[in-house]
Amino acid sequence: MRTSCRKLRPVCLLVILAGSAGAIDNSQNTVARKRPPAANQDAGPSNFRSDSTVVLVNVTITDGRGHLITGLQRENFQIFEEKAEQTVRYFSTEESPVSVGLVLDFSHSMSRKFSQLREAVAQFLKAANPEDEFCLIEFRDRAELSVGFTPMPEDIEKRVMLAKAEGHTALLDAVHLGLRQMKKSHNPRKALLVVSDGGDNHSRFSAREVENLARESDVETYTIGIVGRGEPILGEPELFRGADLLAEISEQGGGHYYAIDNLRDLPGVAEKIGRELRQQYVLGYTSTNQGHDGKYRRVQVKVRRSPGQPKLWAYWKRGYYAPMD
Question: Is 98-276 a domain of CATH 3.40.50.2000?
């Protein structure tokens, strides 16, 4: 499979979830809460004070080839908030229900790619668990919610099977709508999967507005671009270059950006993202900064390698906003 994964740096939710990527010291999803999670595994609820700010960080670990790495223990991780090391008090590898918004490009340029897109959606949904839920945002000249949250993956597949490709590409509006729709989800873990073959040429929202919203949200944002980097979009220089735009949205949203060099790779990449969402480490710490100032705090995750172990990459969201009184 010929795909490329841009190395990103995502962090936290409030309690927040978040993430980012880098070799050995990297991040992906973060959240800060006033009450502890339902702790299992290595640390129990008694490790958290009820009046403290608990930060949860979702972390994905891969090797240099993008293969998911499982089996790491709490002692393999170090976590820092604004360069101050924190004590990892909660550690979990248990899979938890996730709410996923699929944001799919149904513009005219996708007309010859629909068969692979449909297969990709089917492969992604194969990883679904009974408690997961999904919604569908589709975009052409405008973005619209075509399927609200449902625990039935087949509802999404049926809608995609009936969809037609036409119109322009309101990508930014679609991501904005998707992030707002995730506020109506029922599971604590939330993710967006965005698939597009080009840049934006028909949105009301700006790239900065959408990137800021992705940064502030507790939603992991994964994007798949079906267009080569640096390639002009429809020959119109005023349009956003799709690859760079998708990569930046993922970076701010604490997920990954995948560039597809071969359209046949699309279903496999979608399946990989489905597995990745369900094979993450969750690290929890009580922030040493107990201020409730609402400021943005940067989070960094480092991975301790065993002797002889190859270089590892960690992905998490790059920060979170502290609570306010």
Answer: no
Residue with tokens 């009936």: 162
Residue 77: predicted pLDDT: 97
More confident residue, 27 or 244: 244
Counting Cα atoms < 13 Å in the Cβ hemisphere of 156 gives 30
What are 314's strand-pairing partners? 22, 61
Calpha distance 156→149 (Å, rounded): 10
Q: How far apart are the C-alpha atoms of 78 and 97, rounded to whole Å? A: 26
**pTM: predicted TM-score of the whole model, two decimal places:** 0.80
**H helix or E strand, kind and range, residue 26:** strand 25-26
CB 28 within 8 A of CB 255: yes
304's tokens: 């301790």
Q: How far is CA 67 from CA 61, 62, 151, 310, in A?
A: 8, 5, 28, 12
Distance CA 243, CA 220 (A): 18
Q: What are the residue boundaries of the structural domains of the chain, listed by start?
A: 7-95+280-321, 98-276
Which secondary structure element, helix H or strand E, spans residue 247, and what is its range? helix 242-253
Residue type, 65: R
Instruction: Tell me the CA distances in angstroms from 155 to 100, 136, 146, 196, 274, one per residue in order.
Output: 13, 9, 10, 21, 17
pLDDT for the residue numbered 30: 55
Q: CA 152, CA 11: separation in Å to the nearest integer?
A: 30
CA nearest 186: which of 222, 233, 221, 148? Answer: 148
